[in-house]
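Hey,

Quick one before I head out. I ran the complex with zinc ion overnight. Inputs first:
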Amino acid sequence: MSRLLLTLMAGWLSVSTVLAQSGSSAMQTGSTATQSGSLKGFGSDASAQQSLEARFDGYLDASRLGERLKIMSARPHHVGSPGGKAVAEYIYDQYKRFGFEVRIDTFYVLFPTPKVRELEMTGPTQYKALLKEPALKEDATSGQSDEQLPTYNAWSADGDVSGELVFVNYGLPSDYEQLARRGIDVKGKIVIAKYGRSWRGIKPKVAQEHGAIGCIIYSDPKDDGYYEGDVYPKGAFKNEYGVQRGSVMDMPIYPGDPLTPGIGATKDAPRIDRKDAINLLKIPVLPISYHDAEPLLKSLEGPVAPEDWRGALPFTYHIGPGKTKVHLKLEFNWDIKPIYDVIATVPGKDFPDQWVIRGNHHDAWVNGAGDPLSGQAAMLEEAHAVGELLKTGWKPRRTLVYCSWDGEEPALLGSTEWVEQNAATLQQHAVAYINSDGNGRGFLNAEGSHAFEPFLEQVARDVTDPETGISVLERRWAREIINATGDKAKELLNKKSFSIGALGSGSDYSPFIQHIGVPSIDLGYGGEDPGGEYHSIYDSYDDYVRFKDPGFVYGVVLAKTAGRTMLRLADADLLPFDYPSLAKNIKTYSTEVNALLDQERESTALQNKLIKGGYYHLAADPKTPIAAPDPKDEVPYLNFAPLQNAVVGLEKSSTHLNDLLSKRLPSGDTLQQLNTGLYQAEQQLLSTQGLPRRGWYKHSIYAPGFYTGYGVKTLPGIREAIEQRYWKEAQDQIDLDASILNHFSQYLDKLGSTAYPQQ
Ligand SMILES: [Zn+2]
């Protein structure tokens, strides 16, 4: 799975829109302008590093990358399948050839696969859903039905339910508010929701919270089908039979093996009972194609759906409920399966105890040429080039660790279990974790720990975009300027700025950054392909070479980008962390949560006034009445002063540290202690108790949203308490985050005074 892919599928939302939606400001102003040629962390002469990178680039080969992609995508290779084991063994063998030390770390995880899948409409007419994607002659691997996982949502409950059907739009909390105003209750009913606008697992979670007994999720042609463009195999959009598989585990509570929360799922690990896993659903859920959704939706009666709920199927969309009844029966094999994390290392020659970690998953829902093999093949090509450098006698100063994860698709299983198993060791040794996932033609997408912002700007400055010939940084800027409006566009033109997004979830960085505070980066290219194949049998080699990255040139670009990131972190004298950049972003988030409370207060007051004055009633069409919303509690004022003061303190401490770092480089052990202190700083942003109701997530600045799934919430403790209207909790979280930031500032002060005792 990949958040990048989902973002792209959401209709080419601009970077600024995506960032604004996810609660971070779109264009934070620039990090210190980078001088062409300088490299952060390499002092006055970076020429040796630059020539190393030029040699590294010379070893990258697009056709070899494409061959590996073809081999690994030849058969379905989901968790626990023979194909999955074969891909892990192939990757192991490749790392061996590159001259890496390789091992396979095996974990034993719960992984449900379907045993019974039945969906039928029982009234007023009969329809039995196909639940099957047909083979296509244009797609060579699409006919491997013996090995393909059928269309399903992993972690759906077993269930045999019958009930009236209700259309719930995208199945978000706000959609249920609309239903309530129309007097429609989903209690005891089965809901049908569209894919999109949220991570899929949120839809059944919210349906269950509202008392639904079953949930169907379908792909409407308006979102990624014929309404948008030609469908597969003619074009890259979803055809009428395409189905998006995917996990519906409540990963915003905790990811990984549901039976071993917080610990590695080794063979003998203590396991909880499945019924006690709080991140598993209690209702059955099934994804279907629009071929199967059409008769169900067409049959619905009741109120006409609001305009923004309607899709592109050729009839009037109604909400129900009524005579339309469906029967949904699902049973799963709840087996424990082995998963294979392939871990390949190159020991550092100077600082073997400082690890720079790279990762991409290798498991797929089916053949997975795009997700995840395009990223995996690029990472292997990157490792291949590192191997070629090793042959010339070069050795990294720090240890390189390349991780090919298993089990990402169901629940970030391979990375989470590995991180949980090795948490204490990683907190000592891990300098950074660099992730990638599916990759394709287009624009650089970079998210991560904000202390890396200026460092990543230099990486992007030094990689050329193959479609335009300018740097990938310039190309990204161009798009941001074009997508910006009014003053923002002018501001961007005057001052080119580079900002990275905050990490939510959706790929393997989650356990590193959010559970144990290892600084993390997610890199990928995309934005020029609609992704209609996502998690279907059509995510194949044939689809990939036609639509996603013909010639594999963007695979090579990803290898250059992630490879530079790895090589610079491995060889820098001084690790390129820039804490003023983090402080600047936290200041923005602090301003945002404060403004959020004010907006909430004003909109609540206005709405209560409208309700009281009877305006909703007067404005409604008496023939199709829509009730007024229920009045809400008034929003109190909260005390943000502790947070605001802590942010000012952090700006001072981080700037002071940077001033010291820019003076001169300490030597010997002092430098190494300083570097260790710099990479462990992010751990100071963890809280011991974690977020309310989901203590696995310990980072106080970044978390996936409780009701958005992949989408990030920054300052999540405060932001979500305000969104959920838990006012006391919001104040407690403000005070908690303030004390974490104060402690963080003291940590940076101490780091500076220890490394520069005379200052
Ligand atoms: Zn993926």
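The longest strand covers residues 101-123.

Talk tomorrow,
K.
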